[in-house]
């Protein structure tokens, strides 16, 4: 199922509904013009949401195909595929070039001589107990151990979470134990057998580059795609949105490695940045304390009616409609010649600049959830007063959904900009980032103060904001 086929509607607003942030990207009901996503949507991504049974069939098909191609047992085919990240072509190439090296688990090592007592009895090297030959079993390496010791070995390993990497008990033997060998010894150990099969399945999925577990809580869905890209996947069952490549929260346009570095840095520097997380600031004109209770960064002082920017406290009019200067960080051109302490201060100032904006948009998303609730209450009042129907007011919900979608993207532009090298490409990015931010704030301002059915003006603003977002992603989404 392709991502574009997600048809969950955000337009059914019953009393029990809540604002689902996993549906930011499910905007099939918005009034922004839809065209072929394969041609214009930089986030378009084909994938399928599969159950565990469907994934098992998919894996078994690969095993059967390789087994028939190389004329080897399914057990060996499964071990080889797992060891080569389920790349059949690579296994076939290595197998044909050097079969003995490919089948590492089947490499024959000489059996331990001290394990043999007579032709019918062996002494187990682990428990040092003489037993009849029928009580022993071994891997192709030839190292014999009694079945009770094998069972104990498997139980210990499985209880530690180890499954596909269980190896022979002999010292320095690298032969891996195949799944069929483990299951044969655990026939009467139902609980440990089920735990083993669960761990094995997880290992197979994690080693397969085309499969990802849905990160949603207790969700059994597994996403499959032949495109290994940092694109958005949305679970059809729990609606969790995540990056297919790394499995984390979707983070376009920032790539997987950069967002990991950014999140680690934010965690490490959280104490330093605590002071910027306050919800109140002083009006730059009358200096009265103002609390931010909405997502929009266009603030109007309730005391003196001064319009200013929440981020930089500058006059809102000075931001202009073409360029949004407070989103750009001004590098000190002479910083290389400054002292070590000055460079450290400059580095902290730069980090705080981007972190404050990153954190601000994260908070704005949460505040806009409250705005949506207020919007729903206001529309209920209007409908009850006979001022239109629910259908007449649906475009306001579509605009709120699009606003969240755009602001989510904007939030992830800041770690992207933080790690960018200075130059023309960064200047272009900051220009497009500034345009997107300006249109988002315009849209947020209009939504929060929507009192009439001025649908045309709001839908025009929605179209502009989405085009700014799409343009930025087309130019800078590296997948």
UniProtKB/TrEMBL annotation:
<keyword id="KW-0539">Nucleus</keyword>
<dbReference type="GO" id="GO:0005634">
    <property type="term" value="C:nucleus"/>
</dbReference>
<keyword id="KW-0175">Coiled coil</keyword>
<dbReference type="InterPro" id="IPR047555">
    <property type="entry name" value="BRcat_RBR_TRIAD1"/>
</dbReference>
<feature type="domain" description="IBR">
    <location>
        <begin position="264"/>
        <end position="326"/>
    </location>
</feature>
<dbReference type="InterPro" id="IPR045840">
    <property type="entry name" value="Ariadne"/>
</dbReference>
<keyword id="KW-0677">Repeat</keyword>
<dbReference type="GO" id="GO:0061630">
    <property type="term" value="F:ubiquitin protein ligase activity"/>
</dbReference>
<keyword id="KW-0833">Ubl conjugation pathway</keyword>
<keyword id="KW-0863">Zinc-finger</keyword>
<feature type="coiled-coil region">
    <location>
        <begin position="433"/>
        <end position="475"/>
    </location>
</feature>
<dbReference type="InterPro" id="IPR017907">
    <property type="entry name" value="Znf_RING_CS"/>
</dbReference>
<dbReference type="InterPro" id="IPR047556">
    <property type="entry name" value="Rcat_RBR_TRIAD1"/>
</dbReference>
<dbReference type="Pfam" id="PF26000">
    <property type="entry name" value="UBA_ARIH2_N"/>
</dbReference>
<keyword id="KW-0862">Zinc</keyword>
<dbReference type="InterPro" id="IPR002867">
    <property type="entry name" value="IBR_dom"/>
</dbReference>
<dbReference type="GO" id="GO:0008270">
    <property type="term" value="F:zinc ion binding"/>
</dbReference>
<feature type="domain" description="IBR">
    <location>
        <begin position="194"/>
        <end position="256"/>
    </location>
</feature>
<dbReference type="InterPro" id="IPR013083">
    <property type="entry name" value="Znf_RING/FYVE/PHD"/>
</dbReference>
<dbReference type="Pfam" id="PF22191">
    <property type="entry name" value="IBR_1"/>
</dbReference>
<dbReference type="Pfam" id="PF01485">
    <property type="entry name" value="IBR"/>
</dbReference>
<dbReference type="InterPro" id="IPR031127">
    <property type="entry name" value="E3_UB_ligase_RBR"/>
</dbReference>
<keyword id="KW-0808">Transferase</keyword>
<dbReference type="Pfam" id="PF19422">
    <property type="entry name" value="Ariadne"/>
</dbReference>
<keyword id="KW-0479">Metal-binding</keyword>
<protein>
    <recommendedName>
        <fullName>RBR-type E3 ubiquitin transferase</fullName>
        <ecNumber>2.3.2.31</ecNumber>
    </recommendedName>
</protein>
<comment type="similarity">
    <text>Belongs to the RBR family. Ariadne subfamily.</text>
</comment>
<dbReference type="GO" id="GO:0016567">
    <property type="term" value="P:protein ubiquitination"/>
</dbReference>
